[in-house]
């Protein structure tokens, strides 16, 4: 069962989707209350970002107990209710798995702090003595993805490794207990009926023996890790971890794994998608491509090349909880909105799995968050030079004209801007020209029109600043105009366009599907 090969997956950032109890933070019962909306949108599955017990140093990506629900999000009964209801709505459920690190409040890490250097408790993480005569320099020169050194010193003088925030100590993947525990977690959620996993930092986990210095003090961000000469990521041993995960998941038919793979080289990326490893993998090529036909085409070609070598299915995303929203990335304002709509049609025409991040269907821009309300650890760790990811994690506006917007009856955990009123789900459902209506129609066509077949892409000649392609063996053509000129549409009957067209012309910042 490979339902995921042409699926549209909707990423639910649980904190920001729907709040059922008025504490200002989204929760699992909130998600359940909005399943009708996801069904209406026509998506096949939802991916829930971490809802596990956590002190929220990185908003849930710091997991203190991977087999329980944090009270702010509900409890296991709420999770079971959600899975049952989602399945009744014909929606599959993927959950996030965070195998690279735990929270510093995980019982293992607390035990490690209480234990002595060299103890089995410490051996589940990476504890090392420091360098320098007094051991007061970090054991190596690695930096944290969020800024600053990747090491923190504990009271007895040893240091521990954390590639992300201080509250996210990296697990030691040479320790069999770490393997056994992940296997237990996989089965725990599979037995509760989940349809798969999104795997956080899938290029992490394994570390090179001896933790050697980086050649240069590379300090890469979330999307650019795993470059040549960066020993922190993409270590050979990680593939054994994926083989173990796959072996467990294969006992449960129809389940899927999708990895966050921040590896730039196509061949190295493809290795994660070999038949006994992950089913799917995110890359960041489209997320990083500016809105030009050349860059977009290159991102698509590179992504296809990275999966073709291993006959894997490509995965496309224009946004996530880690990157600036498409509307803002493409220039903001009305132009940013048109461009984001055009890119949505482009991704939905491509072969493979498409992931839509909550709020993207509404054309939400990044929100301006005042300094004092910022919560992302990137803000503190960068010494207030990087504002972090809060601007694209603002809660979803459902209805009404004032903050809260049907997301919560309380005070939202991040301030929701004034002026979201015209962007709410309720407003956009009423308007056939809205971003939401466009996405609904596109998803529907993708599911029902016979043109969405073929696993490769054929490019056509196109005017400067434009591109056009069809899927091999299909008659469906997607054309995109990133230039400043109006250009003729390719031949064919118009199926859908990202804004209304005059005659047979494709205006700037627009995409069209023709059959
Ligand atoms: C992934 C997540 C990101 C998180 C990081 C550390 O990149 O997408 O949100 O901060 O891993 O877990």
Write the layout of secondary structure elements.
Elements (H helix, E strand, L loop, with lengths): L7 E5 L15 H6 L1 H7 L3 E4 L3 E2 L11 E5 L6 H13 L3 E6 L9 H8 L12 E2 L22 E3 L5 E3 L14 H16 L4 E4 L38 H12 L6 E5 L5 H5 L9 E3 L2 H4 L4 H16 L6 E3 L8 H4 L3 H17 L3 E5 L19 H5 L43 H6 L4 H14 L8 E4 L5 E6 L5 E5 L5 E2 L5 E4 L7 E2 L3 E5 L1
Parallel strand pairs: 1-2, 1-13, 2-5, 5-9, 9-10, 10-11, 12-13
Antiparallel strand pairs: 3-4, 6-8, 7-8, 14-15, 15-16, 16-20, 17-19, 18-20
Helix pairs in contact: 5-6, 11-14
The protein binds alpha-D-glucopyranose.
The site of alpha-D-glucopyranose (GLC) has 10 residues, from loops.
Walk me through what this model shows.
The chain has helices spanning 28-33, 35-41, 76-88, 107-114, 176-191, 238-249, 266-270, 285-288, 293-308, 326-329, 333-349, 377-381, 425-430, 435-448; strands at 8-12, 45-48, 52-53, 65-69, 92-97, 127-128, 151-153, 159-161, 196-199, 256-260, 280-282, 315-317, 353-357, 457-460, 466-471, 477-481, 487-488, 494-497, 505-506, 510-514. It has 515 residues and is an alpha/beta fold. The chain folds into three domains: 3-99 and 176-440, Alpha-Beta Barrel (TIM Barrel); 101-170, Oligo-1,6-glucosidase, Domain 2 (Oligo-1,6-glucosidase, domain 2, Alpha-Beta Complex); 453-514, Immunoglobulin-like (Sandwich). It has an eight-stranded parallel beta sheet with strand order 11-10-9-5-2-1-13-12, with helices on one face. Strands 14-15-16-20-18 form a five-stranded antiparallel beta sheet. Helix 7 links the parallel strand 10 (256-260) and strand 11. The structure holds alpha-D-glucopyranose.
